[in-house]
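Colleagues,

For the teaching module next term, I've prepared a clean inverse folding example: a structure given as tokens, and then the sequence designed for it. I'd like students to try predicting residues themselves before seeing the answer, so please don't circulate the second half yet.
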């Protein structure tokens, strides 16, 4: 393997549930699982991630040389390389059966490796026998987690524990930089904000000439990230009449949203939220881009009114409930610096990918009884779009869809980006179109 990921190795006697656990964590259905001991024959590995910690999971199921005989030293021999390079070793036992001398022998050998090791007591759903608890402790492994690989119980804490210390990978930033559109009605303060954002870093501002004088993008580098403000000539251009200026602001919004990764909607705090603000913000929402709602000219408003103003914004722009609201003064410069970090966060949220394994562990934590969610997977990014396979066809109740989206945000931190949910119901026979 060219790019080595940290590995987590599962070891245990045949039939304790190694393959089921492997499938549970990776969200893959690759291992052949059966009731017969030793039915998994291949050495299995799969890359997956938990909370951005990417790792490779190795199921040593196939490493058991002799199906019927459980010889710890043989397991160890076969799995030697995998174990020696492992980030963490998981010793999996069956909570319903007695610990054998072979288990003890294997535990002792594994401890000698000097690797972080966790004992996972599987099949805890069927009630791991109290009387056996003492036995598990006697294996001399400090970290013990009762789990049910089959039913997903206790898996979250367990995976969190075994992946501890694996660095979280931030989503990749594009080489080119993050494209930002600043939109809003005339006099909201777009040009002033642009000057504040690019002016702060004037030394490294590099205007990139477009094909025409009309489209000039300006790049600003901040903490190693490039921000490209698009159509800066357009932002600075003023309409001659009020009506022309308003039309121009709408045209600019529609055009620039399409080209942007993140859209900053500028509003004038001294005027409140107006109809044109809602129109322009509406385009940003329809564009499916990440959106930041920026309340400018905050220097003109007495402090302590933030909550009230934010409620007003939320009331008028209900459809943008996922967009963060920032209060700033482009002219004075207060609060402007916060935008860079927020733009980056919104961009990363929109391009974030959650693995199927993570999603299916997430599904298990939901309090959701409208229908059974069989499976969930992320189909695309920008915006993040998820496909839910459920046991019924048709859309979800609105409130349940909201619940799901909110939980996704809470769990995976999607800031400022819309989230799409697509439902694929398991079609019942009578729902299927008749063959012609
Ligand atoms: P644009 O049409 O959206 O590009 O708006 P401008 O940037 O040209 O700003 C319109 C007017 O509002 C100008 O007179 C600015 O000086 C003023 N302005 C912009 N930002 C602020 C601010 O944060 N506070 C105050 N008090 N005035 C501002």
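(Answer key — instructors only)
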């Amino acid at each position: 393997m060219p790019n080595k990921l940290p590995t987590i190795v599962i070891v245990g006697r045949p039939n304790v549930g190694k393959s089921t656990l492997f499938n549970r964590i990776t969200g893959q259905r690759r291992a052949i699982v059966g009731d017969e001991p030793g039915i998994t024959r291949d050495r299995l590995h799969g890359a997956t991630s938990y909370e951005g910690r990417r790792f490779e999971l190795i199921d040593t199921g196939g490493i058991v040389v002799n199906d019927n005989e459980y010889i710890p030293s043989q397991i160890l021999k076969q799995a030697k390389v995998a174990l020696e390079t492992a980030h963490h070793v998981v010793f999996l036992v069956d909570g319903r059966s007695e610990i054998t001398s072979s288990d003890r022998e294997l535990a002792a050998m594994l401890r000698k490796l000097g690797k972080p090791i966790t004992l996972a007591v599987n099949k805890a759903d069927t009630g791991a026998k109290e009387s056996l608890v003492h036995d598990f402790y006697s294996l001399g492994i400090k970290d013990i987690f009762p789990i049910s690989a089959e039913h997903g119980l206790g898996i979250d804490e367990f995976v969190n524990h075994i992946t501890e210390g694996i660095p979280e990978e931030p989503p990749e930033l594009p080489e080119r930089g993050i494209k930002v559109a600043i939109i809003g009605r005339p006099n909201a303060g777009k040009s002033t904000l642009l000057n504040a954002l690019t002016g702060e870093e004037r030394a490294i501002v590099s205007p990139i000439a477009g094909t025409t004088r009309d489209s000039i993008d300006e790049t600003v580098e901040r903490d190693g990230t490039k921000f490209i403000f698009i159509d800066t000539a357009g932002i600075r251009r003023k309409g001659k009449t009020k009506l022309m200026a308003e039309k121009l602001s709408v045209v600019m919004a529609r055009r620039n949203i399409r080209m942007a990764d993140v859209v900053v909607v500028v509003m004038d705090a001294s005027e409140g939220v107006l109809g044109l603000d809602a129109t322009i913000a509406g385009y940003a929402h329809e564009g499916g881009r990440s959106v930041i709602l920026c309340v400018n000219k905050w220097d003109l408003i007495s402090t302590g009114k933030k909550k009230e103003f934010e409620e007003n914004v939320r009331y008028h722009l209900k459809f943008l409930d996922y967009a963060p609201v920032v209060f700033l003064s482009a002219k004075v410069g207060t609060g402007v610096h916060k935008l860079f970090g927020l733009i980056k966060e919104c961009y990363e949220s929109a391009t974030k990918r959650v693995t199927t394994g993570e999603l299916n562990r997430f599904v298990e934590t939901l309090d959701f009884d409208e229908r059974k969610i069989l499976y969930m997977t992320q189909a695309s990014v920008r915006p993040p779009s998820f496909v839910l396979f459920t046991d019924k066809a048709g859309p979800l109740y609105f409130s349940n869809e909201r619940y799901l989206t909110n939980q996704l945000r809470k769990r995976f931190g999607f800031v400022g980006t819309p989230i799409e949910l697509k439902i694929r119901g398991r079609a019942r026979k009578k729902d299927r179109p008749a063959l012609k």
